[in-house]
Design a protein that fits this description.
The protein has 14 helices and five strands. The chain is α+β, with helices and mostly antiparallel strands. The protein folds into two domains: 92 residues, Orthogonal Bundle (434 Repressor (Amino-terminal Domain)); 174 residues, Beta-Lactamase (2-Layer Sandwich), CATH 3.30.450.180. A five-stranded antiparallel sheet has the order 2-1-5-4-3, sandwiched between helices. Strand 1 and strand 2 form a beta hairpin. Helix 4 crosses helix 5, helix 8 packs across helix 14 and helix 12 packs across helix 13. The longest helix is centred in the middle third of the chain and has 18 residues.
Length: 298
């Protein structure tokens, strides 16, 4: 059996190679004298020259033989590779894994009480609480109805049955039919997973998730190999819902400030739009939001 396409242990090298391959020499002012190029994009020596570092040093960095690149070198590489802000942050996370390990995120296996109250308070819009590994820690009734009405509404409360947004997108046939613009949705999801993997390189459950998806989904494996990085926290998504039909919803991902990696994903529709009417219809189908029970105080 082939190994999963998690590209460990040299994730930094793979990232640098894929970013180097996407640049054409003429894009960065490198003169090509007609010799046939054996690889797409820039050569190592061309990138090293653009970044102002030696070819030998850059080669060691790309081959995973150097783990102490300075901020100046990383900035120079980011400029030469024309990295986006998300890609720059990802480059730093990959180049400084030891630093990331010294500041591990606080992890919780369930949504905090305040997050649960927030889900209930925004009953008029679909809302979902996500953990740092894209596990679904909770949802309000409309969030459940929009994204996973075929699943048990209480499944986020059971760790063994807890849904995972990434796993659902690639392995669940019901979720596959939910997104008419699936190509855009899966690219966005894999890019976000890349960000999480760079931030938490030693998370065994995250590594296990990536390995599982690589083994079970050729679609995921192909996208993962491209090493595209983008932390998309807002935008617009289109849905084809089995009960209410087409919707166009804006989404916002709100991160909690406690370092837990939890966030609340909320969807809204433009006022007076057909999508707003569809959400009202979906809410009527599901009934009112249940009251959030507070834990007993001693």
């Amino acid at each position: 059996m082939d190994a999963p396409a998690t590209d460990a242990p040299n994730t930094l090298g793979n990232f640098l190679r894929t970013r180097r391959a996407r640049l054409r020499p003429e894009d960065v002012g490198v003169v090509s004298y007609g010799a046939r190029r054996r690889v797409p994009g820039l050569r190592r020596e061309e990138l090293a020259q653009l970044a102002g570092v030696s070819v030998a040093y850059y080669t060691r960095l790309e081959q995973g033989q150097s783990h102490n690149a300075s901020e100046g070198v990383l900035d120079a590489l980011a400029r030469a590779l024309r990295l986006s802000a998300d890609e720059r942050a990802h480059l730093r996370a990959l180049a400084r894994p030891a630093r990331a390990r010294r500041r591990p995120a606080v992890r919780h296996d369930k949504a905090r009480p305040g997050v649960r109250r927030l889900l209930a308070a925004v009953a008029g819009v679909p809302a979902v609480a996500l953990g740092p590994r894209f596990e679904i820690l909770g949802w309000n009734r409309l969030g459940h109805a929009l994204l996973a009405g075929h699943l048990d509404a209480d499944s986020p409360d059971r760790p063994l049955d807890r849904p995972n947004a990434q796993r659902m997108l690639f392995l669940d046939p019901h979720t596959r039919e939910l997104y008419p613009e699936r190509d855009k949705e899966v690219r966005r999801a894999v890019s976000a997973l890349r960000v999480a993997a760079g931030q938490h390189p030693d998370d065994p459950q995250l590594t296990e998730l990536i390995g599982e998806l690589s083994m079970k989904s050729t679609e995921f494996a192909a996208l993962w190999s491209r090493h595209v990085v983008s932390n998309c926290t807002f935008g617009t998504k289109r849905f084809h819902h089995p009960l209410v039909g087409g919707l166009e919803l804006d989404f916002e991902m709100l991160q909690t400030p406690d370092g837990s990696g939890q966030g609340v994903l909320m969807y809204t529709a433009a006022e007076g739009s057909p999508s707003e009417a569809a959400l009202r219809l979906l809410a009527a189908e599901r009934g009112p939001e249940p009251r959030v029970l507070e834990p007993e105080r001693p």
